[in-house]
Amino acid sequence: MAGPIDDDAPIYVISVAAELAGMHPQTLRQYDRLGIVTPQRARGRGRRYSRRDVESLREVQRLSQDEGINLAGIRRIIELERELDRARDELGRLRAVTTARVFAASASGEVSELPQGRRARRSGGALVIWRPTYRG
User: Which pLDDT tens digit goes with each residue over 58-86?
Assistant: First the structure.
């Protein structure tokens, strides 16, 4: 039995995607030319849309019809949302890499990492804060 379909899997031909989005196929072609929603291509260069593409098409339609935003504005909104997603991903990656870790050494030389927010007991040992440097 097959598992759930990936939201990014290119499964819909243009006519089906247009119907699901409530648009004319020519509108989808125009959005592709303008870079607003860019589907993947099949071997014969036919457009193949994913579930995520169809949702994007619906959002474009909402912005256009309900909010009155023109296509240039919609394209800019999409670009900024993609840029924000990339920045969030990068921030998460950097936070994971640069999180400081605290180690404590007892007087006998035993070293242990302290959980975040925990203080070392004063026992004559050493306390070290380690901040990794990212070299990517």
Answer: 999 999 999 999 999 999 999 999 999 99
The answer to pTM > 0.90 is no
Say which residue the tokens 């870079």 belong to.
35
Cα 61 to chain centroid, rounded: 22
Between the alpha carbon of residue 55 and those of residues 14, 21, 68, the distances in Å are 14, 7, 18
Instruction: List phi, psi (to 5°) of 22.
Output: 75, 35
Please give the structure tokens belonging to residue 11: 């499964």
Residue of 65, 63, 20, 64 lying closest to 39 (CA atoms): 20
Give the span between the Cα atoms of 106 and 47, in whole angstroms. Answer: 65
The label of the residue with tokens 């394209």 reads: 75
Neighbour order of strands in the sheet with 126-130: 111-114, 101-105, 126-130
Q: Write out the DSSP string of 10-62.
A: --B-HHHHHHHHTS-HHHHHHHHHHTSS--EE-TTS-EEB-HHHHHHHHHHHH
> Count of alpha carbons within 13 Å of 44, Cβ hemisphere only?
2
- The pLDDT of residue 120 is above 70: no
